[in-house]
């Protein structure tokens, strides 16, 4: 019986850890989705401006930059964000599978 209880405790600890990581990854994915959307909206808005120079925020100051350079930077940022999203999606899938497997193992251990 003591071996079964320690097994249950180990599985439960792993389950709590995986659920915590899953919540963190989900929050990170939501943040990256917002950043991606902001970059897309900003690039779209810049495309409608008739000027060649735009002011770009840089911390507490603004920099005068060419519109094409700024949109290229936004596109590069969007690609980086997309890569991060793909990596986090893989991690989320792994954690979801881990949580499901831990729950099944916990159910089996409790039934013994």
From TrEMBL:
Annotated Gene3D superfamilies: 1.10.287.370
GO cellular component labels: cytoplasm; prefoldin complex
InterPro entries: PFD_beta-like, Prefoldin
Lineage of the species this protein comes from: Eukaryota, Fungi, Dikarya, Ascomycota, Saccharomycotina
This protein's UniProt keywords: Chaperone
Keyword Chaperone: yes
PANTHER family recorded: PREFOLDIN SUBUNIT 1 (PTHR20903:SF0), PREFOLDIN SUBUNIT 1-RELATED (PTHR20903)
Protein name: AEL139Wp
């Amino acid at each position: 019986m003591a071996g079964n209880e320690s097994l249950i405790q180990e599985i439960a600890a792993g389950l709590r850890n995986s659920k915590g990581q899953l919540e963190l990854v989900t929050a990170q994915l939501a943040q990256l989705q917002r950043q991606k959307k902001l970059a897309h909206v900003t690039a779209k808005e810049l495309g409608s401006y008739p000027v060649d120079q735009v002011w770009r925020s840089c911390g507490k100051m603004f920099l005068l930059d060419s519109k094409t350079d700024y949109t290229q930077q936004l596109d590069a940022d969007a690609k980086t964000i997309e890569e991060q999203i793909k990596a986090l999606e893989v991690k989320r899938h792994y954690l979801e599978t881990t949580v499901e497997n831990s729950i099944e193992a916990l159910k089996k251990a409790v039934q013994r």
